[in-house]
Model the fold of this input.
Amino acid sequence: MKISVIGCGYLGAVHAAAMARLGHDVVGIDTDAAKVEKLSAGVAPFFEPGLPELLSEGIGSGRLRFSTDLADAAGARVHFLAVGTPQLPNSDGADLRYVHGAVDALARVVAPDSLIVGKSTVPVGTAGGLVDRLRTAGSRAALAWNPEFLREGFAVADTLTPDRLVYGVADADDAALLDEVYVDVLATGIPRIVTDYATAELVKTAANAFLATKISFINAMAEIAEATGADVTTLADAIGHDARIGRRFLNAGIGFGGGCLPKDIRAFTARAEELGRAESVAFLRQVDAINLRRRERAVDLAVELLGGSVFERRIAVLGLTFKPDSDDTRDSPALDVAARLHGLGARVRATDPEGIGNARLRHPQLDYTTSAEEALRDAELAVLVTEWREYRDLDPERVAGLMATPRVIDARNVLDPASWRAAGFAYRGLGRS
Ligand SMILES: NC(=O)c1ccc[n+]([C@@H]2O[C@H](COP(=O)([O-])OP(=O)(O)OC[C@H]3O[C@@H](n4cnc5c(N)ncnc54)[C@H](O)[C@@H]3O)[C@@H](O)[C@H]2O)c1
Done:
């Protein structure tokens, strides 16, 4: 099938390449010429495991190409919409300007029997408004909402073998067309839920709100653990054995970040207020506040471990991205902690396997090094803020030999406290006795 993907960022580039893998004839459109140039050369414009191989395969097969010209999408039967929906600059709401811009432009070029399929995360009610927009612009194209649940770091596998497919449609024929697109995915028995626009939009928002709440719940328990001498990791293991609770997403630390969870829970709160249902999701304000407090807590621990001030003290920050196996530093707790420590006058040396380029754009004032060893050399404190495998696997004896004084804050609770203490470290986790 001829398919276009509008917006080739973390979601869209992977989706376009995955659609080509499924045998479709795909054009990816993005307004960012530099991104399109890279993608066209088979080079991933961001770090995502497995994407370079998928891009090369698609381009080599002749089934995948990229363009800045929306006219190149005109012949497609299905147009996936994967543009960004960031937080508005001065409010909690979602900025829909890219969605509106893309739909207005599509209305001018798409065939009347084509289907526009929203994948971006949008406030409930958006899809209905987009249909009105299409009709006002004189387009008869149909619209469906097919929210995306991929996790950065696992985006390729999550796109090709998702947990479930959700279609928000106004017409059964549109669901049938989506079944054709995903025929090979569905053949593996993946559940498919066909519903209306509002439910499909809300499924995505609700899923992110639930995950954020689960993380903030365990981080709230970490705060109580800190006040009582309890250990939040043991607590999480113990409650996680209850199948109704489950252990996943119960890791206390410096909380969630990235281009999705923080802005999505804020946009949900803003949308609920518009709907006169502010009280229904008022708890999400607490979820957000608990999350942000954990970054402060990591900074406070650094001050405490260094005897009352970080001013002029040498601190190694291990990690900058919001999670491992991604180069994404959008709303990254790790980068925030690095910037806060720098703001307090610390001599921060920050490192990350993939995130330095993006981090430098946001915080050019920080001192970056690609080598963890360089970051740790002569440091008086190490702060592990993104749980990359190479930091989890650090040998405490070796790290102690590099540092001026062996102090570590394990802000993701991924190190073994006993072995770090045995190597002479003053070890502090978050919410750990
Ligand atoms: N990143 C994720 O893990 C993820 C997961 C699920 C859902 N989402 C949702 O997917 C959407 C996209 O997220 P992302 O992380 O890929 O964002 P992103 O910023 O990486 O990518 C968005 C892309 O859209 C392009 N764009 C903007 N306007 C355009 C237009 N009119 N025509 C063509 N291209 C245009 C931008 O240049 C950019 O490359 C958001 O709504 C997000 O919430 C993201």
Notes: The chain has a mean pLDDT of 98. Residues 197-228 form the longest helix (32 residues). The pocket of nicotinamide-adenine-dinucleotide is lined by residues 6-12, 29-32, 35, 82-85, 98, 101-102, 105, 120-121, 148, 150, 152, 259-260 (CB under 6 Å).
